[in-house]
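Case 79 in the screening queue. Each case pairs one protein sequence with one candidate compound; here the compound is protoporphyrin IX containing FE. For every case the pipeline is the same: read the inputs, emit a complex structure as tokens, and attach any notable structural observations.

Predict complex for case 79.
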Amino acid sequence: MPDLTGLAARAGGTYPQYMVLNKLDGYARGAVIYSGVEMPNFGELLSGRLSRVQTDRGLSRPFPEAIIALDAYLRTIQQ
Ligand code: HEM
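Case 79 output:
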């Protein structure tokens, strides 16, 4: 699986928030497959309260709050 401290570096230096939220939410399922392996989805983390996020693509969309928290954490561990 990809090194999650290198998300920003692989995206040219800017943390790719929209890609990460979509990946964690399962919205991008089927879009990216490395070496024939796709990430499993998060199951129960995807249920529960939703909050609207103003993403870096200028789009506002609801995401599960647990996924929003995970995205915020991933942003802090970028190298
Ligand atoms: C808290 C746990 C996890 C987080 C936050 C997470 C996050 C991510 C993110 C952000 C990506 C996209 C990376 C990129 O495109 O540069 C990714 C890809 C991937 N992850 Fe995870 N992941 C987690 C758990 C797992 C687990 C448990 C597995 C396998 C058992 C897994 C397997 C993969 C694979 C194979 C990919 C590349 C293929 C794809 O994008 O679907 N991940 N992960």
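Case 79 observations:
- Residues 1-2, 4, 7, 10, 20, 23, 32-34, 37-40, 70, 74 surround protoporphyrin IX containing FE (CB under 6 Å).
- The longest strand covers residues 50-54.
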